[in-house]
Structures are given as structure tokens and as C-alpha cells.
Amino acid sequence: MNNPGRGISLQALIALAIMLSTLVLGGGLAYQGYHGIERALVAAAGDSAHQLSSTINERARRLIDPAQSSIRLLAYDPIAQADNLPERLDRLPLLVASLDANKMLSAVYVGYPNGEFLLVRVLRDPAVKQRLQAPQGAAFLVQSISLGEAGQPVGEWRFYDRELALLKTEGKPDYRFDPRERPWFVAGMGSASTVLTKPYVFFTTREIGLTLAQRSIDGAAVLGMDASVNDLGGEVADLRMTPGTEMAVVDDSGSVVAYPDLQRVVVKEGEGLRLSRLDELGVDSLNWLFASDHQGHEPVLYQVGGQDWYGMRAPLSSFTQQDIRVLIAVPAAELLAGARRVLLEQALWAAALIALLLLVGWALAQRIGQPLRALADQVRALAGFDFGQAVGVESRVTEVRELSQVLGSMSRTIHNFQAITLTLSRETRLDSMLGGVLSRLVEATAVSGGAVYLHADDSDALRLAAHCRGEQYPAELCLVARSHEDLAAAVAQALESQAHYLAVALNDRSEQLLGILVLQLASAHQQPGGVQQPFRRFVEELSGAAAVAIETRQLIEAQQRLLDAIIKLLADAIDAKSPYTGGHCERVPQLAEMLLDQAITARSGPYADFRMSEIERYEFQIAAWLHDCGKITSPEYVVDKATKLETLYNRIHEIRTRFEVLWRDAEVDYWQGLAGGGDQQALQLTRERRRAELQDEFAFVANANIGGEFMRDEDVERLQQIGARRWLRHFDNRLGLSHDEAERLAAVPLQILPVAEPLLADRPEHIVPWGERKPPVDKHDPRNVWGFDMRLPAQAYNYGELYNLGIRRGTLSEEERFKINEHIVQTIIMLNTLPLPRHLKRVPTIAGNHHEKMDGTGYPRRLSRDDMSIAERVMAIADIFEALTAADRPYKAPKTLSESVKILGFMARDQHIDAELFRLFLTSGVYREYGEKFLRREQLDEVDIRPYLAALDGA
User: What sequence ranges are listed for the domain HD-GYP (predicted)?
Assistant: First the structure.
């Protein structure tokens, strides 16, 4: 029966159950999520098709409406009654003005019932001019057919410049054109309104367009205009939903009006040109969609050539006299790519979650088994009559918890009776006695919890003085009845709880009510007639053991410990963020407290009257721990910047690659010269000289990148000379960019590859503007409610190569130095947003002023000595001395005690730090005490403080 080999491990069972349930849930959610996204994408495609149709309609309307207005006005012009060519040419300025008013019009013309004809064509395309053999400067061509004396048609071409000066006249005897035979003339003469023809190919210009015809107001002629719709092809190409989307504008006969590839739309047939038919494009997806009877805006799913497509048809209402529509076919794979990517991501997340929960389940099962083993050990101790050992384990499993409670009550029954008696007899302080007795009473009787309510002197209410376990007790109780019999019911009613209580009145010797003791009963103490009498008598005998102040103080101390832990956690996180500043947030508070203790304990001098309460000391400690909390916002690569070109990586490697390209170019030039018959010795000499120059120049650039020495003017000039070298770039520098990089490059003109670029450059895309994250540090900034007064660089970052290599000292640019200094701004802002209690209100001020100087030249507020408290000035010295002596900085070696004290002496002389506090720092030996605790042995040299004290006395 107890064979362990026939069972299954509880740990494995729980882990397996969690894994399977997570797998089922994750699969279901992924399936639902994928289909939801699929439906949304398909619906969005339908909306996009409708929007595209509206866009093309609007484009066509902007094309047709102005032309219709112009031709309707021309219907009233006297040109319709002109019966000879000179009179008609007199109206040439009006016809030219119509063409200039609408750039999409290619020609305007008039046909007469006797067969005469006049056409004005604008010459915009150089290819058309060449084909028509137009003279230099020709802007317009007038083609005319008039009747001669014998009634024969006479054709002439006239070329005009932009000012309508006649440049050339040509007789065209072979120009035969009878407008009366043209569809537009016939349709126009038979209708009083404007007639719109189907789109076709203009023979002269080879553009795709349509003709607008309008009978003159007196019916004496028909006016026509040719309007190009070539732009619709570009509109279609620009509005494709995915790279593989196929789109076309077709009429009811299948002729293609617009297609992204305009070369395929126009087809030569014999001596003329016509529009391509849809089946001639060879786009099967569009052919299927044209042949289908699908209507409406909802996309239809179909398959062509083994590939799934979503198709949509949208009519163009602008072409009111023709049945023209837009056909859109989107590859399903491209349209649903986002949904499938989300499905893959969800699957990966589900797999990671399953693995994680498997480990959690394994650990959870182990935690369930451990309490059972611990209880077995404790029961063995009880069997050995060891009742002083605590019995019980923590577990969320009901059975394990109940077993633990039963076994614990067996041990507590004996042990806690003795402890209660000992507390009552030995504890002299009331609060300690009540707290101890209440906790022991709750533990010994195994009740769910307890509380003590004391009678308030200023009211009849009972106020909570102490509580232990149980429910969340209200701060006050107003009991209607206080008699012994119904006191428990009144408490339960006042607490608005269904739990059972035992309430015992706390009376003084004169039987005046002092308060009540409330115990929340467990089921073991209840019986049908009420509370068990032995238990009631025991509680009544110990009714004076209610806690008054202990629990409250414990709660406050627990909250304080939690706050301290969170603050230390934040400080440790800031130190851990950079491997080069570890320990700074921990050492500065200790050094600051050392110096502050000396100021507090001073009995003479300027700090003889300086005192701080325990609350003020605690406020200072919190401020010291949080003095650099704003560093959590400082970019790590700026804080740890070890070279001038370093961002997220050292960009010297990019520059070295460019030198490698120039090195290879020297080699290529050598071999090309040799192949061209050049002198080998001279070519070799040139190659080696170029290589030597490249080696020397790269060594100079690399050395400048280190930033260890001061950059002279001639060094910066040499960088400019080296940067002027050119190398040839063959690859597109806009590929593989992040969104931010692409935005910065958007304003830079696109260059045709290959392009020669400077070896070192400050390019426009190196500038990173502030954008919406501009910090409010200018004193005139309306957002600046903290009193900051700092100079803000023009941009957030400048990654320019020459700009950074030319940094005069160190590795930080002006923008990066501001970014580091900004941490104190963020410190003040962050701390001011915290809902600090009244006794901690000065934490932001103490923490945020340690970079201010006594002469008012510090930051971020430019405060002077009189604007700062002693605690703030102490923080300034502690922060500087720790930074000077720290051995974990990448950009400097740790300074010795004497070097650090010497620098502080200069700062005291220049009124950067408080001179009196510096004197106390020296005379009290704080510098030596701190050094012995935190500095390396080689830093602990001898310091003669007498010169510094003499300088302070003479100041």
C-alpha cells in the first residue's frame, strides 16, 4: 500500500497540469487572435479600396470639371460664327488661355458643319516637338482646315511662341480631316450638353485621354477639348496596398485606362495607337476579377495560378457617361503577413510561458512537499516532550495548513501560558505589556486575530489601539450596546462582518469602561450555544492584556523599513546600471553622515548651535541615498563614454573600414596603372607613399579618439584635412535603418550611387533634435516650475565625426556633458513627484542641490551659499570627495588622499564648496576615516592639513 514506486510525484503532477492548461489556453488565444486580425486586415483592405476609388474619382473630377467649365464658356464665344480663318485666329488668345488654365488639356478645337476645322495644341513634350518638326521656341501648334475658292479643303499648320508670335506657317495638302465624321462631332451636335468620350490614345501626343465635346450656343459649330488622364496611372501606382498589389482602371469593354506601367497601356496597331485590353496585360488576377460578377466593397477571396488573392471592384463616378471602374487584386500572403507574424510571435511567447510555468510548477510542488517534511520533524520533537519548539509551517494548501494549525496548538497551549504569565509579571511598560500579552493570547488560543479598542477621552467612540492578525479592523467603533451579553453582537454589527467574535470589556477598578478586547474566533471555539465557557473564562482573566501602542509602532517601523529598502534598492540599481560607478550611491551617504555627525557634535565654532532631530536626520539619510536617483534616466553609453566616437559602440571601427577602402583603392590603382603600361617602379612608389599616409593618418585619428590629451588648433585642422579625403560608396545608406535614423535622413537629398563621400564628416543626419523631450531647464521656460537655470544645447545629440573627434578635452561633447548634468534635473523632478510626508518634504532640496556652488555658478538653479542649508552643503562636499577618490571610473585614475584634499582646497578658495565645512572636514579627520574605510592602500598617503587651514584663516 505504501509502495512509492506505484505513485506519481506531486511536484511532477502540478508542473504537468500547469503546462498542459497553459498550452491549451495559449493555443486557443493564438487561434482567436489570428482570425481576428485576419478579419480586421481584410476589412481594412475593403475600406482602403473604397478610399482609393474616392481618391481617383476626386483626381478625375479635378481633371474633367475645369475642362467642362472651359468648354461651356467657349460655347458662347464668337468663334462658332467665324466663317474664315483670320477671324478664327483672332480668337487664338482665348483658346490658348483655356489650355494654360488646365495643364491636363492637350488641345482645344472647333469643328464646323461645312467640314472646316481649327485646332490649337500646346507643345509641352520635347519628343512631340521633334516629331512635329516644330521651330525653336514654339509653344503652340494651330492646325486648320478651311475651304478654298473651289470648295476644296486646304490644310495649314502654324507654329506660335509663348507670346503668340507666329514662327512658321506650313501648308499641309495631305492633311485630310473631316470633323463631321468624328464621333465627338456627331455626339456633340446631337446633344445640348457636354459630351464625354471614352478614353483613347491621342495620335499626336500618344497620351491617354478623353475628348469633351460641346455644341455652340447657336448650334453653328462643335467645340472639343482633349484631356490627358496619364496621371491616373501614377495615382494607381502610389496607392498600392502592398508591394505585390495589382491595380488597373478599365472600362466596360476591358480597355485599360490606367495601369502603374504606362508603357504597357498603349499598343501600336497598324499605323495607329490604341488602349491595351486587360487580357493583353497578362495579369491573371485582374482578368479573373474583371470577368467575375462580384459587387460591393467587401473583398472577395479567389485563387489564380495557385496563389490566393483578395479582389475588389470600385466604380469611378466621375466618368458619368462611361462605365469605368478600378480593379484591385491584393496577394493574400502579403495582406495577411502581419497576422501570421503575430501568430508566430504568440506561439513563441506561449512556448516561453510554458517553459517558465513548468519551472514555476516544479518549484510550487516542491514548496508543498517541504512543509509536510517539516511537520514530520516537528511532531517527532513533540513526541520527545519538547513543547518549547515552535510547531507550524507556512502553506497555502488547506490540508497542510489545518494539520499545521492543529499541531501548533498542541505546542502553544503549554508554551504560551507560561509566556503570558511571565509577561504580565515582568513587563513594566503598559504598551509593551499589552502588545506582548495580546500576541501571546492570539497565538495560545489559536484564534483568527484580535484587537484592542480604547475609549477616547474626547468622544464616546472606541479607537483602535492595537490589533493582531484577523480582519482589517476599522479605526473607530461606535457601539450602541455595551452590556456583557450583547457586546459581541454589537461588535460584529459595527465591524460589518459575518465572522464570530468574542468581545470582553476592559474596565478599571471603578467599573468604568476603558476599552474592549475583541477576538475573532476560529471554528474550534464555537458551539451551538455560543462561545465555550472555559475559553471565555480564560480570556476574561487575561482581558487586561490588550495591545495599546506596540502594534502601531511595529507598523510604522515596518513601513519605514520598507521605504528604506526601496530607496536602497533604487540606489543599488543606479550603481549597478554602470559598471564604472558602482558603489557611488552607497559611499556618498556614508561620507555625508560622517561629516554631518561632526557638525552636529561640534561644541565650538560656527556649528556649535547646529542640531538636527532624529526625523531630520532620517530625512537627510533618505536624501543622501536618493541624491543621484535621476541617473537612472542617464544613457549608459554617455555615462561610460570612454572614447570620442563612442555611442552604443566605438565608431572608430567604421572609420578604420573607410581607411581600408582607401588602402584597397591604392592597390587597385597600382594594378590598373600596371595593366595600362605604366612604370612599375613609379607605381609602386606611389602606392607605398599612399599607404604610409593612410597608416599615419589613421593612427592620428585613432589617437584623437582616445581623448587623453588637449586638442590643439593644428590638430583640429589636420582632422579637417584628413576628413576631406574621398572614398567611394556603392551601397544605399538608407537600408536597414531604424525609424529615427530614417526620419533624420528624410531631409537629406538622395544621391545617385556610387557617390564620393568625405572620409570624416559632420552630416545632417548626425544631428538629433530635442523633439518633444526637451527638458525644461531654461529659466524662461513656462514648464520650469522648479527654478532651473541651465544653458540648453541646441540639439539633444550631435554624432558628427569631426565634431566629436575635435573635442578639446576628454571624450564628452557639449550635448553629452549636459545629458550627464541633467541627471540632477531629473532627480529633482522625480523626487518632487513623490507624495512625501510632511517630515520628508525637504528631501528633493537636499538631494538636488549637491552640484550648486557657493558663488552661485553651479547647477541646476545657480544657488549661492546663503540659499543652501548646512545639510545641502555637506552633500556637495561628500559627492565631490567620493568622485575624486573613487577607483571605479573608466576615464581617470583614482586620486590619493593628498591630491583629493588639494583639489578641495582649491574649490574652497574659489568658493565652490563651503570653506567652513571644509575646515571641519579636515580638523575632524573625516577624510582620513573615510579613506581607511573605502580607499585602496596605495591611495592612503600622508596629508598635511596645515597649509589649507592657514589659507582658510587668511581668506
Answer: 735-937
